[in-house]
Amino acid sequence: MVESITIENPLLEGLQEEKKPESFSMVIFGAHGDLTKRKLIPALYALYLRNHLPENFAVVGSSRTEMTDEQFRATMKDSVIRYGEDIDFKEECWERFAKSLYYRPGNAKEASYYSSLDEDLKEIGKRHGSDSRNIFYLSTPPSLYLPIIENLNSSGLAVKRRSDEPAWPRVVVEKPFGHDLKSALALDEKIHAVLNEHQVYRIDHYLGKETVQNIMCFRFANSIFEPLWNNNYIDHVQITNAETLGVEERGAYYEEAGALKDMIQNHLMQLVALVAMEPPNSLSAEATRDERTKVLKAVRRFDPDRVDSYAVRGQYGAGYVLGNEAIRYRDEDKVASDSNTETFAALKLEIDNWRWAGVPFYIRSGKRLEKRITEIAVHFKAPPHKLFSNMANTGLRSIMADSSPNVLVMKIQPDQGISLKFATKQPGPTTQLRALTMDFKYGTAFGDHTPSAYERLILDSLIGDPSLFARSDFVETSWSLLTPVIEHWAAVSPETKSGSDESIVQGPFPNYEAGSWGPEASNTLIGSTGHSWRVL
Ligand code: BG6
Fold first, then answer.
1. CA-closest residue to ligand 1 atom 7
2. Do 419 and 389 fall into the same domain?
């Protein structure tokens, strides 16, 4: 049984409030795309079903494909039934929800589209009482972001507000936010010319995951971990994001992105920030985002001449994943047969501040790996005196062979939870140690339903709470940090050995088998400080 507690700490007050958005009109650009079908409409419907939406609202789909309102509603109904994990589909409820769905086909690059959209929104707004509380969701290919922003501006649909004014209209921007520092800065410049930062919601869906939101609660709502959360007690941190899927139908996009830009620049950097940040003064969006950015700024800049000693890349070859045959990346649809795009990336980060000096953070992300798992493992230091280390006992040796028996693992997915590993005496006449874990499982404690990341993020964007969105300075800091790696990887092919002594040999691609744990270079990277990746 889970006992709920009332938290009196003012820092945590915001956690208990449940707000409902005012009536709104949301325009989804890219309404015929995968994200709308798989995530956005199922999330909106789930919010409706769980009574989180206001009585009056409208959702207007926009894309080039010709469709009537009725056809759009029917397509979205199929999508909700197909992709709405955990959604208890109720016909009668859907019928009510669907009355708020509209569709306006057109070319998002053409100015004329926006004048008719403006007219339509006025009329829809009257019908649904949304009173020009418009929110524009950019779920298109990134090349359309600028034309859409510019057209929203020239048609009068986007209006820049002062930071003390209500943030309507607002814009939600999907990732990728730029493809390097220069393009992210250019995009921000255009957006800020038209909208104030408080009207902009940059999606990083990892921030919407329950297990990710829990990192701050775990750290700052308990008093027993934070005193240990520093270089006196922590030896190193490992963050793993492993996927079994390959690039699916996204070969064209992925060729331009690769693991570093697709996963590390955004999702994994947010995880690093949440694990390493200082406690914020309050839970206000700006206080929490200030701390996330501050710690990212403390990550040591990479030396462009030594990239191969702290960053490794890989690309999957053919193999077997979960018992099924998998083709190599270079044979995937819309992928070049000599592609050097990385499907795996691992980095060693050092954080130059008082708390983290000397504690390496190892992060890795890859496709077509052995298991789907995302976790953060905090490895504590070994006890100062090795009382048990000389005992000729195998169980004991294997525990103490690690740097420490104590590892705290925050399991982001798929088995959500937290576990703490510790050594204990095995009952019996001799002193034999065994490693055990204390486990907290979301499913056991809270039941099956955890809201999807998109449910939470869409709700927050409607309420006007940007805490779980990426602020421009975070995005820019992250791009700037990774620039030496991006530039080195673009300029030097993976099989080229770079000059420095510590550089890790990585290529030629493909350099790991589908269904493995990535290239050998990744083991060499973490081995450089005498560590090894957790066996998952
Ligand atoms: C997306 C990436 O942002 O995140 C995908 O573009 C990746 O390549 C996905 O598969 C992973 O998300 P999740 O929630 O399944 O870990």
1. 263
2. yes
Q: Identify whether residues 63 and 198 lie together within a single domain.
A: yes
In this structure, the answer to whether residues 383 and 240 fall within a common structural domain is: yes
Return the structure tokens found at 349: 């980060």
Do 197 and 220 reside in the same domain of the chain? no
Question: Which residues have C-beta within 8 Å of that of residue 499, sequence separation ≥ 6?
Answer: 305
Q: What angle do CA 65, 262, 522 make, to 5 degrees?
A: 150
Contact of 351 with 295, CB cutoff 8 Å: yes
- In ligand 1, which atom is closest to the CA atom of 209? 14
Q: Quote the pLDDT of residue 3.
A: 56
Residue 402 has pLDDT above 60, yes or no: no
Output the pLDDT for position 8: 47
Q: Check: pTM over 0.70? Answer yes or no.
A: yes
Beta-carbon neighbour count of residue 228 at 10 Å? 14
Determine the distance separating the centroid of ligand 1 and the alpha carbon of 518, expressed in angstroms: 17
Dihedral of alpha carbons 17, 21, 27, 31, sign: positive
* Residue 390 pLDDT: 60
Is there an atom of ligand 1 within 6 Å of 204 CB? no
Average pLDDT over residues 60-84: 96
Q: Is 375 in the pocket of ligand 1 (CB under 6 A)?
A: no
